[in-house]
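Quick note —
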Amino acid sequence: MVFSALLLLPGSRMIIGVSWTLTFEMYFYTLVAVLMLTGLSLRQLPSAITVLIGSILLATSYMDTEGPTAEFFSNPIVLEFLFGVALAPLLRLYAPSLAVAMILLIAGVVLIGAGSAYTDNATTAGVSRNTRYIVWGIPAVLVFNGFYAIRLSEGRVRSTILLLGNASYAIYLTHPLVMVAYARALKTGRFSSMPLADLLVVVLLATVLGVAAHLYVEKPVTQAFRRITLGYRFASS
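Predicted structure written out below.
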């Protein structure tokens, strides 16, 4: 069970609950890697991955099978990856002006807020899997477009934003540790339930922990794997 969780296989019980999203990332990257092995050009890849994912979704949606694996492959959340696939070439052809970018950014934030307000429960899990790629995916595209057009000059603000962006997934994966610690602190009765001051402290601590995990765990491990793979590539060439 631990081995399948480490490999992020569909249906395995995650060691860290929020890492379920990584199973979909690995699925997408695996499909792209397989298509690249076929010799397709970079121009052909977007169309090919769209057709492949769409075909798998349609096929598994109509299959009379149940279970975590079938549920995984029929989950339309992978369509959000296709939003990114479509967005990349579009932004090369047309980059929005700063004014348009701000409108898109504000619209995206408003839609995310509206989606959060109208879910069936207090978490994003309240959105049906058949609509969440619309509820969260489209606003995410708008927000990304907005930030894409912003160009910051060199300086502390830019470097800080880049650091937070690079550390974003580490923050996402480690923030439950801070939330668990905060929940235990609440049980002691010494803290009130999420006033603004507590909320800001929790967000700050989660961010600091995530950045530390990025700098002292994620980056060294990634660099080590790159050295190993590059060394293997040169040795085999």
